[in-house]
Structure formats: structure tokens, C-alpha cells
Amino acid sequence: MKTHRFDPLSFVFGLSAAIFGAILLWGNVEIADLRPSHLWPFPVLALGMLFSLYGVRRLIETARAARADSQEEAQPEISSIQD
What is the percentage of the chain residues whose pLDDT exceeds 90? Predict the structure, then answer.
């Protein structure tokens, strides 16, 4: 199985759907009790999580690229050793 890059958008929406489902399943809440005035924080939280995950992913990728560059510079070239 081929691995793929982490997708923050799918992660946030999947996590939001799971949390919403858990609230409806185990909470003392029915779907008729949910009014839009009570639901507005959920999209705001999801958007905040999405921005945070994109930022963390960018930091991790930058750190990996910097580490790979430093490892390439640390390894001597074989042709220069043989000369």
C-alpha cells in the first residue's frame, strides 16, 4: 500500500463529523434541539483546527527539508576521497 501525504482538510471534517455524531449518540440531545444559534461555534472551531494543522504540516516539512539538506552536506563525495 502506498502512503500519501497527510490531508488536514479531510482530517478536520472527519473529526468534526465524528464529534457531532458522538454528541448526538451519547449526549442528551436530539436533532430537533439543535438550533443554528447553538451550532455556529463548530465551523469556527473546525476552521481554526484546519489552519493550525496546515501550519504544523508546513513547519514539519520545512524541518525535514532542512535536515535532508544538512545530511547531504555532511556526507563527503566519494570521488573527492578517491582522488
Answer: 0
pLDDT tens digits, 14-40:
888 888 888 878 888 777 777 877 777
List the end-to-end C-alpha distance of the chain, in Å, as a whole number: 43
Counting every residue written for the chain, the total comes to 83
**What is the separation of C-alpha 8 from the centre of its chain, rounded to a whole number of angstroms?**
4
Is residue 55 one of the residues assigned to a domain? yes
In a domain? residue 5:
no
- Distance, in Å, from the CA atom of 13 to the CA atom of 17, rounded to the nearest integer, reads 6
- Quick check: is 35 in a domain? no
